Recover the amino acids of this structure.
């Protein structure tokens, strides 16, 4: 069995399995942890507060929009996340891979130029945010090694994907796939889980604030 | 003329004729069926080949030249028609080697400038220019070994002054990261064939180069973004002033003596504008090479390639000087771009006018120990 066959076969199944099993386990753990029921009479609707916070926090709070840091993080954050989302799910090689190896069905991929533009935004956003993490004294202090590992691993996955864009070399595809598998294994145990936990986090904060009659 | 002399002349003619006749007889058209075709395969041979009778075909045409006596191919069925070879190539090749701006004729299959571009790339750019960054590194190593790092005269004071805000530093390192990546992949594309093939072989080099090319193409537009970002973050303070002339005339105090300077000295300003202008050239030429259909004439792409290589190598080379001065070459300078603060004594020594300005207008000086 060649290296690429191992990467596309057993290693892919193992890493995808770890990603799914431990990702679900972490989500279940968060949902089942529970918290003490508040005894005070609610001053507002927790559900409304949760919904308002989940959707309202897509834009920065008006109280901090005067700060250039706010706009920097917002714009670069969207640039990275939307770019990554687009190239992860709508790049033609990824759609083909998901169709052939995972789901059995596919969908219309982005044209090549659209994929390239998405990658440009994703790279620029990630690089800018990672640099800010390293250079802003406050953010640097509150950053853990996990944050840097998650950023670095994501960057490497994207970079090797970019290297393999020509689809001319099995070696480059193998390197990219190997890093994707490492990323999948690391994912459930790291801050990368915020991809799935952000609605829970926002929802809880919003519900608590809504119950108190305030906004999160 | 005596009878003896006439007889000897006759004998000589007979001898010469007898010696030459066998050779002439071998080359008679009647004995060589290909003589009529100029050495090309005859109709019979072609039909035999089509019938699969390979063994009966003489394939000598592929390696042997036609006999010297073969009549020249001037008929309409010849490979060149009636054209002499020189005219044939003239028709095929367009453009004037002495006037590169003169457009090639529309029917030209290849341009003269294309060959010139190839020769320039192979014999000059790749052969000599690509080594410039290594030469600069060697020079800087010598400077470091001979002179050592420039120390802060009075040592560190322990008090710092804010020099660059967060976004200036992020913009700087953003551009630095992208530039270093583009520089490395660009040099690999330029020199990989000469430098790496002997070390890692053709296959590994091909993999490395295809990766480099994809990476280089994808990060190019990000460099344009970083260039714009840098411009707007750093252009205040980088306009030239009278004090810069003094700095330039004293070569920045390279040979001793103090030279006054504002927030940025002449060297820093020159580097800023070099990055902006050469960066602009790299951006435009890069776009032309990425999207060659934007220009109607292929020679713009060739010119873009040459300018891109020259500008890139020049910027990479000077960047090593910038990296040297910003790190090991000058004590305390790296702090400006990592922490955003510099030591007071460093500021007094290298940017005294800026230091006085800051001291007089703000209270940003603080104890480093805090």
């Amino acid at each position: 069995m060649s290296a690429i066959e191992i990467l596309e076969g057993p290693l892919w199944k193992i890493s995808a399995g770890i990603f799914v099993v431990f990702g679900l386990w972490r989500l279940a753990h968060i949902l089942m942890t529970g918290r003490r029921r508040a005894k005070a009479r609610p001053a507002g609707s927790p559900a409304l507060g949760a919904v308002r916070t989940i959707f309202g926090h897509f834009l920065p709070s008006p109280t901090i929009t005067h700060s250039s840091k706010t706009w920097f993080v917002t714009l670069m954050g969207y640039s990275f996340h939307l770019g990554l989302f687009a190239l992860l799910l709508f790049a033609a090689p990824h759609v083909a891979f998901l169709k052939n190896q995972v789901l059995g069905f596919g969908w219309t991929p982005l044209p090549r130029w659209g994929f390239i533009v998405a990658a440009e935004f994703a790279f620029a956003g990630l690089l800018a945010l990672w640099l800010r993490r390293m250079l802003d004294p406050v953010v640097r202090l509150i950053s853990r090694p996990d944050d840097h590992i998650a950023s670095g691993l994501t960057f490497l996955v994207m970079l090797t994907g970019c290297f393999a864009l020509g689809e001319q070399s099995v070696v480059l595809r193998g390197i990219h796939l190997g890093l994707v598998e490492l990323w999948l294994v690391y994912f459930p145990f790291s801050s990368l889980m915020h991809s799935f936990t952000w609605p829970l986090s926002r929802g809880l904060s919003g519900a608590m604030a809504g119950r108190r009659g305030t906004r999160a | 003329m005596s009878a003896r002399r006439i007889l000897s002349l006759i004998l000589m003619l007979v001898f010469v004729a007898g010696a030459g006749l066998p050779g002439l007889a071998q080359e008679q058209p009647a004995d060589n069926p290909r003589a009529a075709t100029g050495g090309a395969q005859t109709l019979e041979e072609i039909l035999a080949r089509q019938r699969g009778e390979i063994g009966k075909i003489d394939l000598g045409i592929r390696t042997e030249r036609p006999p010297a006596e073969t009549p020249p191919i001037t008929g309409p069925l010849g490979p060149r028609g009636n054209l002499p070879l020189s005219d044939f190539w003239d028709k095929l090749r367009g453009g004037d080697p002495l006037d590169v701006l003169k457009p090639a004729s529309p029917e030209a299959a290849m341009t003269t400038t294309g060959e010139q571009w190839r020769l320039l790339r192979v014999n000059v750019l790749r052969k000599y220019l690509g080594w410039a960054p290594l030469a600069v590194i060697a020079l800087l190593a010598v400077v470091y070994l001979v002179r050592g790092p420039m120390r802060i005269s009075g040592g560190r004071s322990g008090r710092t002054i804010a020099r660059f805000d967060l976004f200036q530093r992020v913009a700087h390192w953003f551009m630095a990261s992208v530039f270093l990546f583009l520089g490395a992949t660009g040099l690999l594309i330029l020199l990989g064939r000469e430098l790496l093939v002997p070390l890692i072989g053709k296959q590994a080099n091909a993999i490395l180069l295809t990766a480099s090319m994809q990476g280089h193409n994808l990060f190019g537009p990000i460099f344009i973004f970083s260039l714009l970002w840098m411009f707007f973050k750093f252009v205040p303070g980088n306009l030239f002033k009278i004090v810069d002339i003094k700095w330039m005339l004293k070569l920045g105090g390279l040979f001793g003596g103090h030279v006054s300077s504002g927030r940025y000295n002449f060297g820093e300003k020159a580097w800023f504008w070099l990055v902006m202008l050469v960066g602009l050239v790299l951006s435009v030429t890069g776009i032309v090479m990425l999207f060659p259909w934007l220009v109607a004439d292929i020679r713009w792409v060739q010119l873009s390639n040459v300018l891109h290589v020259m500008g890139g190598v020049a910027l990479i080379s000077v960047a090593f000087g910038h990296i040297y001065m910003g790190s090991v070459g000058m004590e305390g300078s790296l702090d400006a771009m990592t922490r955003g603060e510099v030591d007071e004594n460093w500021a007094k020594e290298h940017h005294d006018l800026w230091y006085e300005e800051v001291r007089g207008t703000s209270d940003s000086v603080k104890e480093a120990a805090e």
In short: The CA atoms of residues 39 and 66 of chain B lie 5 Å apart. Residues 114-367 of chain B form a domain with the Fumarate Reductase Cytochrome B subunit fold (CATH 1.20.950.20).
